[in-house]
Amino acid sequence: MQVHSSYFDKPQELLERIVAQMEKVIIGKREVIEQLLVALLCGGHVLLEDVPGVGKTMLVRTLARTIDCSFKRIQCTPDLLPSDLTGSSIYNQQTAKFEFRPGPLMANLILADELNRTSPRTQAALLEAMEEKRVTVDGETHALPEPFFLMATQNPFEFEGTFPLPEAQLDRFFMKLRLGYPAPKDEMELLNRVVERHPLAQLRPLLLPEEFMALQKDAQRVHVDDTIKGYIVQLSAATREHADVTLGVSPRASIALMRAAQARAYLSGRGYVIPDDVKQLAVPVLAHRLLLAPDAELAYRSREEVMGGIAAAAPIPARRYAPAQ
Questions:
Q1: Alpha carbons 63 and 293: distance in angstroms, whole number
Q2: SS3 state at 311
Q3: How many domains, the chain?
Q4: Which tops the pLDDT comparison, 257 or 102?
Q5: For the stretch 2-17, what's the b/e string if a residue is b when 16 or more beta carbons lie within 10 angstroms of its beta carbon?
Q6: Three-state DSSP class for 24?
Q7: Where is the ATPase AAA-3 domain (predicted)?
Q8: What digits encode the pLDDT tens for the residues 228-252?
Q9: Are residues 98 and 225 in the same domain?
Q10: Which residue among 40, 188, 197, 292 is least enclosed by CB atoms within 10 Å?
Q11: Of the residues 187, 214, 241, which one is the last residue of a structural domain?
Q12: Is the overall model pTM greater than 0.85, yes or no?
């Protein structure tokens, strides 16, 4: 595959092509695809929570086909060990030395399927990889390839034999997304497309990992006015004071929301962030980081519902947001 350097004259056209290609397989879920691209432009990890069969794994495989990068799938089970993820040191009798044998985490795009089925010890092995983008095996640190994205899936309705993700790990997921069931017309279109050949087999890479990393750097240059930063801080503070929330979001979440708003503005072809960028991403970026109060859980209120209410109630700043000329 050749580097398409000409795409960077109009990066939004390239990003639109990525979304359009992924929609050939994931039908009727443009908003989720765009949110996934926002997370990737920020170098963030994504938790896909939904019922079986709606396309979580297919979404990740489609992305791997679109970006020409290495892809590994990990099926999480209760007997999975940390070394099964990170790799291990093997003694080589010929050289009389221990050699590092990399595990599946040594790839650009990782799919951890049913993450909540593996033990807390193995879940904890992912924390260093997610935050530091490296793994430590037998006291030696090994850098992960760049770019590095972890996408994990879990079923929210199956609890037997599962280990709920701890708050510290949830906080390291940049975003939590749900696909949901397709609309009837989209499901009909899906049936038509897979009659003879699955559309995934026809996809071709649109860009290299190095190109995607260049897009990430471009997205970080999007201007964020102090008024927008104040709006983000206001949202974060509101989660810490809300009656339905025991534990509000951390400063890490505020940074994530700002980065996400930059990426959304970049996808829209703007060089500056507006309040709508923040408001539209508040739920997928912040909701999964909340710890609800017992009364809210007894009332069957979801984190998304509570965060949506906080975002709706927060006053939106009114002024110019573009950088001064």
A1: 37
A2: helix
A3: 2
A4: 257
A5: eeeeebeeebeebbee
A6: coil
A7: 45-175
A8: 999 999 999 999 999 999 999 999 9
A9: no
A10: 197
A11: 214
A12: yes
